[in-house]
Automatic annotation (TrEMBL):
GO biological process, one term: regulation of DNA-templated transcription
Taxonomic source organism: Armatimonas rosea
The name this protein goes by in its record: Putative ATPase
Top-level taxon of origin: Bacteria
MF-aspect GO terms: DNA binding
Amino acid sequence: MENWHFELFGGVRARRGSLVLDELAGRKTGALLALLALAPGRLRPREEVIDLIWPEIDFDDARNRFKQTLAVLRKQLEPAGTAPGSVLIADRLQVGLASSVQVDVVAFQEALRRAASAKDSLAQAGHLDSALALYQGELAPGFYLDALLSERERLAALAESARERRQALEPALLLSVFTESRKEEGQAQTEWAPVLQRPLNAFFGRQWEKDEIVRLLREHRLVTILGPGGTGKTRLVQELEGIRFLSLSSLREGSRLHEALVAALELPPSDEATLVRLRAALEGQTLALDNFEQLVATGGPEAVDALQRAIPTLRLIVTSRIKLNLAAEQVFPLSPLVAEDAVALFCDRAQRARPDFTLTDKNKSIVTDLCRRLDGLPLALELAAARMAILTPAQILERLSRRFDLLADKRRDREARHTSLRAALDWGWSLLAPDVQYFFTQLCIFRGSFSVEAAETITGELLAIDYLQALVDSSFLRADGERFRLLETLREYGLERLSPLESARLTQAHAEFFLACLKDWQPLLTGGQITQGIQSFKQAQDNVSAALERTLSLSPALATALCLAANPFWKVTYSRQLALAYLTQTLAQATAAGVAEGELAALHGCLGPAYLDLGDYSTARFHQQQSYEYNRRLLEERTTAGASEAALLPLRETIAEELNNLGNLLYFETRFDEAVAHYEEARLCNQALGNDVRLARNYSGLFCVFASRGHLTTNAQERRTYFEQAQHFAEEGTAVCRRAQQDFTLCFMLRGQAFLLPLLGEPERALPLLHEGFALSCALENWPIVADCLTCYCHQAIRGEHWEEAAQLQGAETALREQWNTHAGWEAPPDDEGVHTRPFANLPERLGQERYEALYQAGFHASLDSLKALVATLPHASPFEK
């Protein structure tokens, strides 16, 4: 999607592509836009902006108008489908426009700066002409903010000065034209046009990259654009302005770089030293040296160093797959295209192969997935698009398992190494040392990111750190903080080079490593370090999935162990569908392979809650009963055989957990009496065993039963009785959670009390518990509980008649519930005294439909930090006070 372009000269307008907004909704909206557009990327204090635009009214009233104006502006600049905060940046303290937007005032001043630093009359005149073309009239006419008035006068003075300077250059320009026409042909040979012209096909995205490279060139004399083959390094450089370009793809000796430059510049013969001659031709220039990687080992970096020492004013952009490792080098790793730009590039190239192809709602998800699977690599996207002459996007996607055979193109205007994806990677591969090549193929067993320790353990390589550095420097591996990551395309390339025997060895080592990790992390889930445990699992999740998929057929017993070790992490990260898929496949493979009955029962025990979460109660009951009956039978057998109580302890704990899971199933089937019986039996068992972690879950289940009974009844006295019982279990459960540092369950218990206490006449106790529950659930990323807490805060806003905040909280709550497929609990009818348990307000009616929609969408797309700030603005009263 194109960036917004804001025009302030001669009026206040906003353009993006064919869309033009020249009648912004309200004078204040235009004033706010004009004020912020003067300095994109700069965040102004909200209070300062409010004082500038509404100086004549009460501050509280001005602040409300500011919020309304900001919402209207956001709706115009960030319509549905636009990432929130990508154009208009705002938080509780500051507001501003993103630095990526374009503003005529900024471009005008930049052109004047270039004119001031230009070294000749012709360049100076060109920049002045650009500036004057942008100045279409005074700044923001019709707007009379003090800040705009002073800036209007300053810019008008600059424009007048530019006109005078441009007129004064006319005599010098005429002389320059005359002199140029009299140049001898030999002299003209020193004028060097770029070796390659800008390609005719369209270029997509990379605006941030272009801006960043220009910025780096201001601060550094040598910038290396680093990336694997096919990332679009050459094409990016060709989009930069004022760059001289030299392709080095045919040069094999880096020590001959200076000679190659003399030849490219077509310098006349001379007795002067080569560097002296180059200095005269390249002083003050910016030169791009393309395809440098093959020169790194043959004296290329030394030649670059000598060139820059001889020409202090020369700036170099180098594109390479390998770092030069010079002290003056500033590396710029080039990432693949972002999803939106990758899709745009693919569609553009696909239309060349098949002119009737268009992106539709029907094929958009397939094209997006295809571009993702191709890692957003421009070369891979272009080669895939070339196949559109005979294949559909879905057919290409189906064939990506053979991507290196599929992605080839015999166009005559391509370099040989860019005619196929394999050829592009072969070139970089040939530059790696054999031992580094072998180490890379072993790393391809990883999926997603991995640590140094994982690489050392699985490969068994003593020089792993050195090899990792070599692969990063050669663009075969990306450093991601303290971890490393492979592009999927490069991973597939390396896996092709593994022998079946080596692949089997690595699969076993990889699975055993991550199984050990899961077992090491499990204790973190039942103590005060649950956040660390969840974070560790999330980093390893792709590798755990890869290990499961590979071992399902190779070693069902190992796959079973992995599945059972991963299941607690799937539960706390709400990975329901993923858990169900892997558990189901593993159970089928393990059953067929004759895995031990106890392991099969454990898989059944995991599948019961997984199906329950998805609302399939009958299937959940089948699996839960399979596990429960097996463990009951085993306990009887071992008890009869005289096993010690210590030996029976793990089995008793498992049975108590099965009882709790059966209680959950009965609760969702609204068989409340039976559910209570199971929870109580489990509670007594866990109390006897001293297992506080599972005891907390028993209290959670008992709380749910009695709270639900209270919500469902319409008898006021019965409702109170049930709520009192629920509150009792909530308090007991909270105490156990705190004692056992069981933070995940504690979130639930705190939220439950925040709902119930006000209904029991103790509203003053509710708010601190709500705040604690919200903060804790946010820290744990327990999103269903976060959504429940937002519901409470929404009620608080409604009761305080803070309608705008309530609308935003409604949007935020809905977004979380849609994303995590969770619901808001019981919608209880009023009791026989007409009392509701939830407040209600018709917000669209109170705010107006348009205003409500804008606020609702703002909340729907709000970040977690924004929601925390919004909650902090609410009055410090219980959300349930009457």
